Amino acid sequence: MRLSKFLPSSLFLTISIVPLTWAQSTPTTAGLNALPEVEFSRLSQRDPNPLGEKALAIHPEQWKHGETEHFIYHFVDSFVVTPISVEAEFHYRVVAKELEREQPAGDTKSHIYVFERPADWQQFQKLGRLEPWTGGIHSQGSLFIVRNPAFKFSNNTLGHEIAHLILHRFYSDAIPCWLDEGFAQYVSKGAHASYQRARGYISKPHSQAIATQDLIPLTVLVAMTQPPSERVEIFYNESERFVRFLASTDKPRFLALLDALARHQPFDSTVLRIYAGEFASAAVLEEKFRDYAAKDSETSSQLAGE
Ligand SMILES: [Zn+2]
Question: 234 CA to middle of ligand 1, Å?
Fold first, then answer.
């Protein structure tokens, strides 16, 4: 099924949705097109992450399992996990396209654990570090989230977390925090808007301008190893804006920068080398970015292609 008639033909978001593997098999749980349940012993892969084992040890009788092309799910209720599985595969395609990469060698799937009971989640979250933006935990390529069965997707938090999982598959040696968070925000905002539009909702990605006096200096931003608890919102906004700025200035150079930073090259010299001719010095880069960050979201519409 091609969705491009619903979607803009921009570089980023002309998306072909290929039939998901589960849609081709016979559902074993109630509900049309529900994610089929698979016995744990018959899953195609195991999660080597010890946190996964700990999650499944919490009321072990509650967990069911299923899988799609790129993800394995551990869940309680089929009707909760089914929309998550559809959205996860959607985001996989958006992010892979944005990275202009083929699937990494191998066929490793990412594991997603969907808790439903708040008490179970409270017990589990003591084991990992919550992402302040989404309340999920991602660790070593696995994602742990809590879902209220009444929850309706209303923002880009799931897409944000899925973006992290996919970045981890392409860059398993870790990328800097601002780039990981900024890219996850950048790609999930645009993807969420197109996901909504494909389902008949009017939606545009939203990107907030940042007042110049609120900006974290770039040298400080790029050195942070986790979002600063007292400036979480600015950190995510500014990281997203910085990624958007670098990608819109020159997409191939942005991807080259991503590759270099994933190999732990120093930011300051690497960005000036890769963007030679654009930014003559760190001061010029900072100045151009400050101007860009203070503008209202004129380029966010570029991602959506409208
Ligand atoms: Zn994040």
Answer: 13
**Gap from CA of 39 to ligand 1 centroid (Å):** 31
Residue ranges and CATH numbers for the domains of the chain are 21-170 (3.40.30), 189-304 (no CATH)
pLDDT at 190: 72
* Spatial distance between the Cα atoms of 203 and 76, rounded to a whole number of angstroms: 31
β-pairing, 110-115 vs 142-146, is: parallel
Contact 37, 64 (CB under 8 A): yes
- Find the length of the chain: 306
Q: How far apart are CA 100 and CA 187, in angstroms?
A: 13
DSSP for residue 40: G
Q: What is the pLDDT of residue 29?
A: 44
Among residues of the chain, what percentage have pLDDT more than 70?
76
Residue whose tokens read 């203070």: 294
What percentage of residues in the chain have a pLDDT greater than 90? 51
Query: How many whole angstroms from 190 Cα to the centroid of ligand 1?
Result: 15
